[in-house]
Amino acid sequence: TEQTYIMVKPDGVQRGLVGDIISRFEKRGYKLVGLKMATPGKDHLEKHYADLSSKAFFPGLISYMNSGPVVGMVWEGRDAVKTGRVMLGATDPLKSDPGSIRGAYALEVGRNVCHGSDTVENAQKEIKLWFPEGLNSWTSAAYNWVYEK
Ligand code: GTP
Ligand code: MG
User: Fold this and answer.
1) Cα dist from 109 to 75, 92, 129, whole Å
2) pLDDT digits (tens, 9 = 90+) for 42-67
3) Reported ipTM exceeds the 0.90 cut
4) Which residue of 23, 91, 115, 133 lies most exposed, with the fewest beta carbons within 10 A?
5) Is 57 known to sit in a ligand binding site?
6) What is the value of pTM for the model shown?
């Protein structure tokens, strides 16, 4: 089954959005297999966003991400990566669907509340980076109420 790494950024934690963001994924039908608060520091955050290291906004992005604890989670279920991105909304909150997390709670790209893996391959890399200890395997009692087969 597909897994994606979703993270509440420091602004989302400060603004009390952790519960809402978890709730949206939980209610959608995804299964939580990893969850933790972390203050990982610059080196770890630079690894997470390594693909963006040449961008002009990179230093600002790292200091934003390093400004407080984040809450990282792994959600498992059908089309988790792509559907997760739809649930977060466009990178620029002003272009996000109002029903999405960013479209509901953010106004600026540099304070956009949450992160979501962009491909299945990157999701697996991010999960290894943030959860080197591994994930939790469990059978959801709701499975047959979420999936037809
Ligand atoms: P993530 O889920 O956080 O990875 O966002 P994304 O995949 O929607 O966008 P991307 O990976 O391209 O950029 C990572 C993060 O860098 C964004 O979520 C923004 O917080 C920030 N960012 C991206 N583009 C800009 C920009 O043009 N200006 C500023 N200030 N920040 C940006
Ligand atoms: Mg990204």
Assistant:
1) 24, 5, 24
2) 999 999 999 999 999 999 999 999 99
3) yes
4) 133
5) yes
6) 0.98
